[in-house]
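=== RUN LOG ===
request id: a7f3
mode: sequence -> structure
chains: 1
length: 496
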Amino acid sequence: MYEKLLCNSRSDVYPCHMPGHKRKMAGFPMESCYGIDITEIDGFDNLHCPQGILLDIMRRAERLFGAETYMLINGSTAGILSAVSATLRRGERILLARNSHKSAFHGVALSGGRAAYLYPQYLQDYGLCGAVSPQEVERKLSEYPQAKAILLTSPTYDGMVSDVAAIASLAHERGIPLIVDEAHGAHFMLDQRFPPSAVSLGADIVIHSIHKTLPALTQTALLHVQGKLVDRKRLQYFLSVYQTSSPSYILMAGIGQCISILEQRAAELCERFFQWNQTFERQMKTLACMRVFSTEADRYKGRGIFAHDTGKKIISAAGTAITGKELYDLLLSRYGLQMEMAGQDYVTAIMTIMDTQEGFDRLGGALAQIDRELRPATEWTGHLRTDKRNHGQSLDSRHIDHNDSAVWLRTGQPACEMDAALEQRWKSVLVEESPGKISAGFVHIYPPGIPLIVPGEIFTKEVVTTLLSYKKQGFMIEGMQDNNNKVCVIGEEKDA
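=== RESULT ===
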């Protein structure tokens, strides 16, 4: 595709068609990008009815991933929306992992469906959500026997993997499809040292954000479908609804390039990744104050997770004198290392097959140096901070057993169906005044985009405490108004 775009840009065919820049951008910024930016012209196929070069890219992806594949250029969001809409009709219920990305909740709302939540297990030591267990799925299937689909996030944003094979079996026993948001696990199929892909474990629809962990452009993703439980015509219809009718050929060429790289160099790239990763993890085991989850993941198997993606580096500063946000800022300002995100007690770094030895070495060296300067929060007086303090409760610091999967921390309590809440009138109230009120909107930290509260849930004191804590620390909060002071709740505004 890329070579064909280059050839077209160098031809003498004059573009009497969109886009408006006409590929005549010499002397303007980003000239090279405009030169290969086209619309659906002769010889370049159509994403919504692929019969030529785009179909070829999809077929090559199918050989790599092992299932019927569709290209997504509106990100995994478009795939999740399409998957939910294709399997759920108005008034029907889906079993939805409560730690799903916001797009999954949006999909349920748009389809007019209803959600019953699957609660993940909890890893108390790190303050992280683990996996959704097969036992939790079985309980909810017994409680909601008329459920029409299951949607699971595996791996999670933090790399926690569920027992997809067991959950797929439970779904198929009841004749319903399993949708797996495997956005962060597109690389799993590359090497047996990664967890197995949900495609190989029998999931009916699997969505991959190839731009997250593979060499692809931002906004590109793939949707895979297999088995007989998903109506292909209905799925294709919703893919055309949620994807733009003017897809970017630059993005689609990037998907083709990514597939070519994997076809030709996957083994080589994986081998060097695991070599450098092994050295990095040995170094991380010597840290005195901080901890890195991937070095300890094995001891959590069966107690919160089924497996863990070693590419997700969860670096915990819990129990030290710095917060996750401070560690995040320090890694950027002093060492030039941009983390994926910060939590209240940890930071997340994503390492992929396209990382370099320099990247692993810089991160490892920076963490080792910071660790040498740290002391426990009650003792530490070094130059990183000069005040002694107790951070109080972190985001997920209540003492809950690893095997208690029926609890979701720091979210609202369900009060009514999400679709009913969205149809109500709403008003804005100060965050401090929201406890006991029913949410009329979504509130989440981005990244990762997992709702702290969804429409139909009651604001609890814990939710409000969490939101105020995030606000104080300078986190980006979406869904709050008036400088992050107000939230939307069900009710009518009073006259002035």
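=== NOTES ===
Confidence is low (pLDDT under 50) at residues 379-410.
The chain has three domains: 2-260, 268-373, 413-490.
=== END ===
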